[in-house]
Write a structure and sequence with these properties.
mainly alpha, two-stranded antiparallel sheet, 9 helices, about 5% strand, globular
């Protein structure tokens, strides 16, 4: 068993002002995505300047934060937030939904693309390889907060989290998700997108890969206490929300290459 490192969730405390690691991880994700996007900007939109890219990053970040928070409220704990609406503002305590943030990013991309001469999937294909930076950073934030831990385990890398009332050695599922949703997903998308792909293919690869990784990790992650298991007692909400992503990813990849083949045959 490994010892949990006991990291203070508060990174900086200046009197009543407290800056949490969880919030800083969002800055890491947004900053990393902006830097990587700037390296690929010329090939994506030669007529865009850095200010245009900054606008895109801003609106996508708003989609992540607002969509992620609203998604958690709607998908995971609606009754509690109706009872205490002010909790919606305390994002440093966690309570963000990837699937809600994903919807927020899609809406922001649709809105921004419509006003800047890019189709929805052109923007999504550009954004998709940047997203794992934020996902990985967010999972590190979950680990520092000692939240979203896994099921009890006797594996040598299991940990006892200070927030666990039972004080059992558990899977560090946050680190599993960091490795898969952050590192592995980034590698897949970055190398896949280095060569020209038909529009929608990169978006499809993102949806497919993330959906598979999330579905797998959910088997060892403890579901939210207020929800438990769904679909007859064997699926979590994360798995229920990831299944459509897997199907969507397969469909988008098939459609992207099918259209490319059809366009080539018609020439």
């Amino acid at each position: 068993m490994l010892a949990y490192p006991q990291i203070d969730p508060v990174a900086i405390a200046l009197g009543p002002l407290k800056i949490h690691w969880y919030g800083l991880m969002y800055l890491v994700g947004i900053g990393g995505a902006w830097w990587l996007a700037s390296r690929r900007l010329h090939s994506f939109a030669p007529n865009w300047n850095k200010e245009k890219l900054s606008d895109l990053v801003f609106w996508v970040a708003m989609g992540v934060i607002l969509g992620g928070r609203l998604g958690y409220v709607l998908f995971y704990d609606l009754a509690a937030y109706i009872a205490e609406p002010v909790r919606m503002l305390r994002i440093w305590e966690g309570g963000m939904s990837f699937h809600g943030g994903f919807i927020g990013v899609m809406l922001a991309s649709w809105w921004f693309g419509k006003r800047n001469g890019k189709s929805f999937f052109q923007l999504m294909d550009f954004i998709a390889p940047l997203v794992p930076i934020g996902l990985g950073a967010g999972r590190i934030g979950n680990f520092i907060n000692a939240e979203l831990w896994g099921k009890a385990s006797d594996l040598p890398w299991a940990m006892v989290f200070p927030t666990d009332p039972a004080q059992l050695a558990r899977h560090p599922s946050q680190l599993y998700q960091f490795a898969l949703e952050g590192v592995a997903l980034f590698a897949i998308l970055w190398f896949y997108s280095r060569k020209p792909r038909p529009t929608m293919a990169v978006s499809g690869m993102f949806a497919l890969s993330y959906g598979i990784f999330r579905f797998i990790v959910e088997f060892v992650r403890v579901p939210d206490a207020q929800l438990g298991y769904l679909a007859g007692g064997w699926l979590t909400m994360g798995q229920v929300l990831s299944l459509p992503m897997i199907l969507l990813g397969v469909f988008l990849i098939w459609l992207a290459y099918h259209r490319q083949t059809a366009q080539g045959a018609s020439r």
